[in-house]
Design brief:
Elements: H1 9-20, H2 29-37, E1 42-45, H3 52-61, E2 66-70, H4 74-86, E3 91-94, H5 100-111, E4 117-120, H6 122-125, H7 128-134, E5 141-146, H8 150-155, H9 169-175, E6 184-189, H10 194-204, E7 210-213, E8 221-228, H11 231-243, E9 249-253, H12 257-269, E10 276-277, H13 283-294, E11 300-303, E12 316-321, H14 328-335, E13 345-352, H15 361-384, E14 390-392, H16 393-399, H17 403-412, E15 416-418, E16 423-426, H18 435-449, H19 454-461
Parallel strand pairs: 1-6, 1-7, 2-4, 2-5, 3-4, 5-6, 8-13, 9-11, 9-12, 10-11, 12-13
Antiparallel strand pairs: 14-16, 15-16
Helix pairs in contact: 2-3, 15-17
Length: 481
């Protein structure tokens, strides 16, 4: 492959056509690829199904050296790497579920510089075994890609604290590389409101990034929110909806693994060919379900948010949220999997009636989320008083079970700086408040109860007020009863 400095745009398009078989780039793919080939930092917000992965895969394949792709889910990594390997392209992956033999095989390819793309989680990137190899002076690293970058904000404070340390990765790697080395960072996501975009830029320490933003509006996607009065009524409403769409491809989203298994069992007893999909399944089980759904042998899957990222199926006609997700970013990600072929599709969300007297589960879920969040902040507050003002993350994590989360929350509150990916300095210990996460959860409730056009609400929330359809979209239950 050619170096970016000597790669002409004609060669870029020729490689694109040869590898993926498409004639032309879709906006803004071409502009993003130019930016990454010139080693500039970038923040890319493109709707689900917009072709984000090609934007960083093609520049990586056209350059000598390695591009690191930080990805949140094992299933997402496996799908993207398998697609690249099927095209005989030099890509590898590392994650905690990988058999040791395959892990060592990938590490050997890495040391021999035979990979162009290496997919790994934030935790794997910051593991001693991998970090030691990435810091070898002779290993050329061109860029760091953060795929599904909204997860940094969604999970980084409490669930996946390693995300909060990613901004220290580039400076640390550059210390080990020859003088003049340049490593670009690019963040890709389908959903990021202005506050999320700002946080991604700050945490990753992006340097004058090129920003590419596309709004998520699809006029072929009809949005509906329907009230159900009892748990039994919720199931019957779902069943009626499915019965009206025989053989059509769809997805049913639930909140927990237990919910996915119980609902899939119930539908299976009624004769539907379906399965529960969640992060607790083995890689082989996940891949089997994905293959059945992609081939249409299984019309729909009952799944948690673990399903869908990086899985391409254009003819999904419907998405049902059996339970409301906690965040609008999750919701827009998941409904965006319907109607990628441009044909009419529907996104239905089922919610309890406002009082919750007959079906209190939605209110209980919301209260559980808020209580857990407050508890985590309270624990971190108490723990912060015991932590040394400076030290090493792994030492803190060994001594305190929630130590890494406490450090992450202190960083989120601007009370801590990372002195490299593994060391910290607490400079201003103070009160911790979970304001942003609770506010984001309230935005979801406002969407469910709004009287205005639902697409207008979503576009305004994600910073696309000027692009919102007026006076209404004609493609939601507020505009078309």
């Amino acid at each position: 492959m050619n170096n970016s400095e000597t790669t002409s745009w004609k060669q870029v398009r020729a490689a694109f056509q040869k590898i993926w078989g498409y004639e032309n780039f879709r906006p803004p793919q071409g502009e993003v690829i130019r930016s990454l080939l010139s080693r500039r930092d970038a923040l890319v917000v493109m709707p689900t199904g917009g072709g984000k992965s090609i934007c960083f895969q093609l520049p990586a394949l056209l350059q000598t050296g390695l591009t690191l792709v930080v990805s949140p889910l094992v299933a997402l990594m496996e799908n993207q790497v398998q697609e690249l390997r099927d095209r005989h392209l030099p890509a590898g992956l590392l994650h905690s579920e990988l058999p040791s033999s395959k892990r060592w095989q990938t590490l050997q390819l890495l040391e021999r510089q035979q990979l162009r793309l290496l997919y790994l989680s934030p935790e794997t990137l910051l593991s001693a075994l991998v970090w030691e190899r990435l810091c070898q002076p002779q290993l050329k690293i061109n860029g760091l890609i953060l795929d599904e970058a909204h997860c940094l904000v969604q999970w980084g404070d409490t669930f996946r604290p390693a995300y909060r340390r990613l901004g220290a990765v580039r400076p640390a790697l550059l210390k080990s590389k020859p003088s003049g080395t340049k490593i670009a960072i690019a963040a890709f996501t389908a959903t990021a409101d202005p506050a999320t975009q700002q946080m991604i830029e700050q945490v990753l320490q992006l340097q004058q990034p090129d920003v590419f933003r596309q709004n998520p509006y699809r006029e072929n996607l009809h949005l509906k929110v329907q009230t159900v009065w009892t748990p039994r009524g919720r199931k019957q409403r779902l069943l009626k909806f499915i019965q009206a769409k025989p053989g059509q491809a769809g997805l049913i989203y639930v909140r927990t693994r237990r919910d996915s298994e119980s609902l899939a069992d119930w539908l299976g007893q009624l004769g539907y060919a379906t399965a529960a999909y969640h992060a607790g399944l083995s890689p082989d089980e996940r891949r089997s379900i994905e293959a059945s759904w992609l081939s249409s042998a299984m019309p729909f899957v009952v799944c948690t948010s673990a399903f869908g990222m990086g899985i391409n199926k254009s003819n999904v006609r419907w998405v049902v949220h059996f339970h409301a997700p906690s965040l609008l970013s999750e919701y827009v990600q998941e409904i965006g999997r319907a109607g990628r072929d441009g044909k009419q599709s529907v996104a239905l969300m089922l919610i309890s009636e406002p009082t919750g007297w007959l079906d209190p589960e939605d209110k209980q879920r919301q209260r559980f989320f808020e209580d857990k969040l407050r508890s985590q902040y309270s624990s971190a507050q108490q723990l912060a008083k015991k932590l040394p003002l400076q030290g090493e993350v792994s030492a803190v994590a060994r001594q305190f079970p929630d130590g890494a989360i406490a450090l992450s929350l202190l960083h989120s509150a601007n009370q801590l700086d990372w002195q490299g990916p593994f060391n910290y300095f607490i400079h201003q210990p103070g009160w911790l408040q979970p304001k942003s996460q609770l506010l984001a959860a309230q935005q979801m409730i406002q969407y469910l109860t709004t009287r205005q056009c639902r697409w207008q609400f979503l576009l305004s929330y994600f910073g696309f007020s000027k692009e919102a359809p007026h006076p209404g979209c004609g493609h939601c239950d507020r505009c078309v009863p």
